[in-house]
Amino acid sequence: MIRRIKNKVIRTIFKEQWSLLVCERDGKPLKQISPPKDRIWSDPFPVEHEGRFYIFLEEQIAGGNGTLGFIELYPGMEHSSFVPVLEKPYHLSYPQVFSAAGQGSSRWYMVPESHKNNTIDLYAAEEFPRRWVHETTLIKNITANDSTLLFYQGLWWIFTSTGNTMAEFNSNLLAFYSKSFPSNSWKAHPLNPLSSDSSNSRMAGSFFLEDGVLYRPAQDCRRNYGENIRINAVTSLSPETYAEKTVRIIRPEKNLHAVCTHTFNYCSSFLLRDIKTRYMRSFL
Known about the structure:
Blueprint: H1 2-13, E1 14-23, E2 29-33, E3 39-49, E4 52-61, E5 67-73, E6 83-86, E7 93-99, E8 108-113, E9 119-127, E10 131-140, E11 144-152, E12 155-162, H2 166-170, E13 174-178, E14 187-188, E15 208-210, E16 213-220, E17 228-237, E18 242-250, E19 258-260, E20 264-266, E21 271-280
Antiparallel strand pairs: 1-2, 1-21, 3-4, 4-5, 5-6, 7-8, 8-9, 9-10, 11-12, 12-13, 13-14, 15-16, 16-17, 17-18, 19-21, 20-21
């Protein structure tokens, strides 16, 4: 109750907005990309394709459902307007876009968050990056947030968080695996939930490899939703085991008036994050 009252007061006094942050791969900020004032841009997933650079993201206008689309980032850090590619009568966010090249398919895929539809759905690009069609439903009858696909050591994995409230979504991590992809048959990891800690459960972007080590970005939601990002080195992942350790914490940039950051994704050239900025409203 106290936290809800505090958040309501903050929203009354301050203007908050999610925007994008393009960084060098070492994390140094290069460019903050802000949306129009009446909406947010969040959950960036960068893709480099045929010499062009796209950022897939969620756009949401206050009070509405999230729409998925992309902006194109040009040389010199200028960017296009938002191009919508997927919209439903329910909320969409977290558009994980990936290629299955090397695993039997050269297609581009997208797994959006669609917990309001009680599904984890897979979309495929008929015409990248603009045209996407529903390929299959990976898991039915599941209320899942920020589902993230991973191909690792011959298996496909889905890491996700489930629940009925924000607190539940923020404080559990589940994994499912399959030998094939696309698949409608996924086995639950026997150690589920792999994490029950609001500081280090909910996914914050795609897994990534560095020097042979697999890393998992997670949201730290102890005090506020998506306040920080924890980078975890995965020390064991198999159908029987899971272990990880936090090796780095990413905090929002105070010099940019940022108070939260909750998505972290690499491509070959850049690191993409989102930040929530907070400015005092003018009442004059």
